[in-house]
Amino acid sequence: MPLLRQNFRHQLEQLIRELPHTPLLMLNGLAEGMDSEAAEIFLDVIRSDKERRGREVPRHQLVAALPKIPSDYRGDFQDPTALARMEDLLQCCDGILHPGNCADLRVAQLTAGNEQGLDPSACYGQQGIFLVRHCYLLFGFFDGVETRLVGGTSQTVSMQRGEIHPLFVSVDEVLANKEPGALVLHRTPRCKPGSPVNGAGDIQFWSPGEARNKVSRGEGLDLPQAMLTIPNRLESINKSLGWPGFEPTIYNPAEGPYTRLWSRADQRAGKNKRNYEHWCRVLVATGFILVLLAQLSPVAQGLWWALLLLAFLLFPRLQQGPKLEFISQRCLSECLTVQHLWIALDIDDDAADLFHSRSNSELGWIRTVLRAVRIQLLSFHSRKERIYSSAIGKAQIWIAGQIDFLTEKIKMFVALTQRWRAIAIVLAGSAVALATLESLPGSSGALAPWVVVLLAGFASALAYSNLIGYAETADRYKRSLRQFERGQTALVVTASDEDEEPVTTRTRQRIVIEALGREKLDELNDWVAGQLQRVYAPGA
Asked: What span, in angstroms and rounded, lies between the C-alpha atoms of 498 and 502?
């Protein structure tokens, strides 16, 4: 036990040292044995961190994830000392999640006539699913014996590695939706006959992206850097949230400031969109200027071909970075809005499950962030009651704001599409007119280069409009506008029905917001797929 405690403490201290701006959030079942040991070590480590850094320390949290409601869970403790230890830990938790307040911890399918409390293996199995779904970094204290029992440590470890035994039920969806996670195994003998004692204290690491069943042993106790790729990305986000002068965005005074994370994502999305549009303009303008120079000065022909070759190699990279960052930050901000409203209205859906990032591995970190945010929101509401009127009021403000925003943007994008189309038509018509004059008897041939220049301008106008995607964006916004208008109408209908009971009205309002959120995420998925397929082709 002293060796296990020392090793685990060392790794927690490494996380705090290498991620100084990132709060650690431990999900723990507080079971007798290593669960309780790990929770106590975690509390001691974060207490020391707070004493050392004072106000600079991020808000680390211990969140209990119990397989049963607390009153039933206490019955699983036979040892009064272990039960008292668990009760003390519950008092130290920042949040307590259990089947009574968290749908993800409820057993999905029960045998007819049986209550959940009569099926402990299913309860513990569901707890393992919950942990694997929401934990990026899973610490397992395991003797390495495959028990093939539902609800055991071996099941949770297998799921984190992306493996599952046929006896384990209700996990296919978990593995399909789960992002690659990291696993740290501390070899821990069990207090039962047959548990191997050799190698006690050995540590094994599974890093994300490694081949199935591939195990790497660290040179020491430190977590390999391959495990910290996503945590390091979260660290950069958390660090920027604390920069002086950073202020959350206020969209509507009635709704108040958005979270700092949403504000950062929204601001960075806008910045990278402007950068992307800048490179598109540079690309099109440069191409047009090169054509002009090549036609007016034969000396520029060599320069034209050299720069064209450079465009094949350079422009895609300059353009792709801001584009992908714009897509990822916009996705994060949109998903966060839906997730916050769903949690505030006690809607069980998970935005991370419905955001399909599989088409591009670069977007997988978004789902990791969404799951972490969701746990923090669930933890917060486990100790503070939801105010339904406030939540539905914010949802109504969101819908009204989206309708106003989309209506204005649709008008702008339609006008821009028509403008660039008109410019292209004028340039093409001018080229045809000059070509006609050039074909007349007695023409000197001086107009021929200008015909090419005007055709290049025609192509450039169409290329810029298509590259920015004004028409496609307008069509996407029209689809979204119809969704929000239907949602607004539905909320008005539910609120005006005086014959309905308040509970029924709230249920219908939740259904409306859930449907709107799902449609928003569906539209977001379609947009991402379309944007990722839009590839810059200099040859065209």
From this structure: 9
Going by the DSSP 8-state scheme, the letter that residue 498 receives in this structure is T
- Cα–Cα distance between 362 and 323 in angstroms, integer? 12
Low-confidence ranges of the chain (pLDDT < 50): 110-117, 211-218, 539-540
Q: What is the DSSP string of 421-436?
A: HHHHHHHHHHHHHHHH
In residues, how long is the chain?
Answer: 540
**DSSP letters spanning 268-315:** HHHHHHHHHHHHHHHHHHHHHHHHHHHHH-TTHHHHHHHHHHHHHHHH
DSSP code string of 177-201:
HPPP-EEEEEE---SSTT---TTTT
Distance separating the N- and C-terminal Cα atoms of the chain: 67
- The closest alpha carbon to 125, from 92, 155, 84, 164, belongs to 155
pTM: 0.85
Query: What's the token pair of residue 88?
Result: 């003390």
Please give the angle made by the CA atoms of 479, 482 and 488, to the nearest 5 degrees. Answer: 145
Of residues 485, 338, 468, the one with CA closest to residue 407: 485
Rounded Cα–Cα distance for residues 538 and 536 (Å): 6
Say which residue the tokens 């969109």 belong to: 273
Residue 217 confidence (pLDDT):
47
Phi and psi at residue 142, to the nearest 5°? -145, 140
Tokens for 118? Answer: 């009569």
Q: Cβ contacts of residue 75 below 8 Å, gap of 6+? A: none
Strand partners, 61: 25
Segments in 345-447 forming alpha helices (H):
351-354, 364-383, 388-439
- pLDDT per residue as tens digits for the range 129-160: 899 989 999 999 988 877 767 777 888 888 88
Provide the pLDDT for residue 372: 92
Q: Which residue has the tokens 């590839």?
A: 535
Query: Distance between CA atoms of 478 and 440, rounded to whole angstroms?
Result: 48
For the chain, how big is the Rg over CA atoms in Å?
Answer: 29
**Of 464, 431, 468, 454, nearest to 285 (Cα)?**
464
Alpha-carbon gap, residue 78 to 438, rounded angstroms: 99
How many of the other CB atoms lie within 10 Å of CB of 226?
Answer: 14
Phi then psi dihedrals of residue 181, to 5 deg: -120, 170
pLDDT of residue 414: 93
Q: How many Cβ atoms sit within 10 Å of the Cβ of residue 381?
A: 17
SS (H, E, C) 76-100: HCCCHHHHHHHHHHHHHCCEEECCC
- Give the integer Cα–Cα distance in Å for 104 and 98: 9
pLDDT tens-digit readout, 98-123: 999 999 999 865 444 444 445 667 88
Three-class DSSP category at 166: coil
